[in-house]
Structure to design on (158 residues):
């Protein structure tokens, strides 16, 4: 029994693995808390816990790339974008996922919408039906004609 038969209430009992050959250790909660506080005050906190990364932002970028499972090409593209923003040649104005979704929605509305049609196909004597997504050709051509960056790329002498 610990501490001369005293109650285990407010006592920290540390049991070590048998292979460690260390005896059980008993201490009061107050002694335990004091020992832990002394350890904390003697611990030096690193001024750059993100080492070996040069900056915290580098560390956070690496963490984000890892979480997002970005491959080498995606990391290179992302870093190139960040460098453009940093050197002032461009900027990112998106501030939230909601803003990004709204922008994607606006972009999708500016082009001809995809349509869905069932296409019946004969295969091994049975008719099968497949749902096909497509953009009508004439609507797609109109989108190109409205785009000043693309209209000059069309060959009109076919």
């Amino acid at each position: 029994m610990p501490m001369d038969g005293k109650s285990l209430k407010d006592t920290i009992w540390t049991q070590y693995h048998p292979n460690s050959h260390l005896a059980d250790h008993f201490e009061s909660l107050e002694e335990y808390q004091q020992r832990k506080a002394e350890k904390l005050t003697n611990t030096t906190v690193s001024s750059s816990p993100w080492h070996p990364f040069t900056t915290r932002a580098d560390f956070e970028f690496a963490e984000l790339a890892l979480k997002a499972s970005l491959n080498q090409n995606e990391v290179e593209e992302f870093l190139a974008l960040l460098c453009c923003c940093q050197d002032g040649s461009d900027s990112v104005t998106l501030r939230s996922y909601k803003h990004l979704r709204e922008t994607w929605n606006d972009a999708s509305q500016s082009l001809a919408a995809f349509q869905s049609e069932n296409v019946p196909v004969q295969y091994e004597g049975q008719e099968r039906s497949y749902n096909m997504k497509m953009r009508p050709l004439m609507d797609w051509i109109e989108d190109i004609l409205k785009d000043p960056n693309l209209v000059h790329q069309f060959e009109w002498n076919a």
Summary: Residues 57 and 146 are 42 Å apart (CA to CA).
